[in-house]
Amino acid sequence: MDIDKRIDDQLLEAWTYINSSPHKALKLAKLIKDEATTLNLTNEIAISQIVEAHALWRMSQYEGAMQLLDTARSTILQHPPSMWHFRMYSAYHNIYHNLGIFDEAFRYLYLMGDVANALDDEKRRMQVEGNLGALHANMGEHERAIEHFKIILDYAQRTTKRDWEFITYCNLATSYMKRNQLEQAGDMVYYAQEVMDRSVAEEQYSVHQLFAEIYIKQGAYEPALPHLEQITKLVPMIDIKRLTIESFVTWGQYYSHQDKHEEAINSLTQALQLAIEIEDLNQQLTIHEQLYTLYQQQQNWEQALQHHIQIRTIENTLFNQASDERIHNLEIVYRIDQLQQTYQRQEQEYETIIEIKDRLLSTLSHDLKNPLSVIRNLVHIATRKAELVNQENPYQQYFDRIDHQVERMAELITDILDIAQLDLSIELSHERVYLPDLIDKTQQDLSPQAQSKEMTIDASHNMPKGVKISVNRQWMKRVFDNLLNNAIKYSPPSSRIAIETKATHDNIIISIVDNGYGIPSDELPKIFDRFFRGRAKDGPEEGTGLGLAIVKTIIEQHNGTIDVDSVLDKGTTFTITLPLDTIKSSHK
Hints:
The protein is of the alpha+beta class. Helices cover 70% and strands 8% of the residues. The protein has helices spanning 3-15, 22-38, 42-58, 62-76, 83-99, 102-118, 122-138, 142-158, 162-178, 182-195, 201-218, 221-238, 241-257, 261-277, 281-297, 301-388, 396-424, 435-452, 473-489, 547-557; strands at 431-433, 456-462, 469-471, 496-503, 507-514, 561-567, 571-579. A five-stranded mixed sheet has the order 2-4-5-7-6, with helices on one face. A hairpin with a 3-residue loop joins strand 6 and strand 7 (571-579). Helix 10 runs antiparallel to helix 11. The radius of gyration is 37 Å and the shape is elongated. The two termini are 24 Å apart.
């Protein structure tokens, strides 16, 4: 299996644990990130950081999650919209929602919507609607929440998504209750009951709990009773203490509305004990307030006073906790803002460095090549003047030598600037290319040189037309130009060069085989070194010593490899291996 594909599958597996086991998702994502870092798979590193961020925000570690998102963001945004863009923005939204920074939460929801529209993904658009509904509900804007929930309900019914339909009916019922629209709330619970999965205890509990609350609010205690009894049966099956507390509180409300004070006090006392056990101060406050009211009605002033004292103590604790949390959230927001400013400064500095690099290379190219062009033009003018007057030029041999050396210097400058550009480039632009077309174009361009030595070049392409890979066309053409030109240059007249391309499950393999002079075994380990020039069969072959170094650099920037095998007086074989999807990790 292709390495990138295997890692992508592992990332999707880690994502499946986000809701059920964020600690496991975090552990898996870190392991994947370590492997991706070793392989220099930049895109996979960024995706693993998004998975880590989702796990951390679910564990309320907002600052760490935000740092990971900010780090991954630049890499993710280099690619077209995808589900990982959506998940990145979703993590930002959830963090700001939990911190109570609603304007930022809304901003990232709209970015999620933009991605969903770009992907034409209705399901993700509905996720945005659901988040909008939840956000408005948490802000107490239940009318607007209902509008969003209705949109989701329409989608769930059209696409027969039963689970979505059930949850949305329950959300609508809760929002209608908050608005005291009890009849509409009852209708929603009735519809939820129609679509619920009767084998799922949690869904049965939600329906009976909502029915009980609505009937109690309406003062309809008799129809509330069977639902309360069902809640009592279901709670042990679910074994969630929060729901057990909720059921006791609902029983307390039921007894209280019927002036059955002792029964109400008994239920609420059991609820209070569980709330203390799980350290839920908000539940404790609600229960103490109800017990305070009940003891007042009984004129049991001592017990009423005890609960009143507890109410004031818990309110002070909650106020202090809320103040501490606000201060902590402000500190997090401040640090996040500082990190984002630092990131923006680094991004601006990066852009400035790239601009300076481009200007430097352009200036060097002009300043180094321009004088050579002037010298060469003067040599050609002097030669041409002698030809026009039909005079033998006694200095022609010197002019020829000057012209040849200028050509060598121009070639050296070009190679130096090219390898500098490759070393400094942060990323290469890519396009989908059918490599045999690029090889055939190179063969056509170099056919005059081959024909001048009466050489033949045979190309064999064993790969379907549809197999294209993402490469930088200009630089990949440079690879084939260099290797084929070397094969022609270092092979005797009337010899043969063979080019073969083939596709495997994971890679494309290109072989260039000549019947040339070969490379001595002691030189093979050095041929890709910069400025290394080997011994030619008939004396030193002039060159810059950079051609094969450039070839190797280009191939490596496409996550490929190049190997050489050579036997003296028999020939040389260069073999290039490129992964089928080079674009995924070529950004550096």
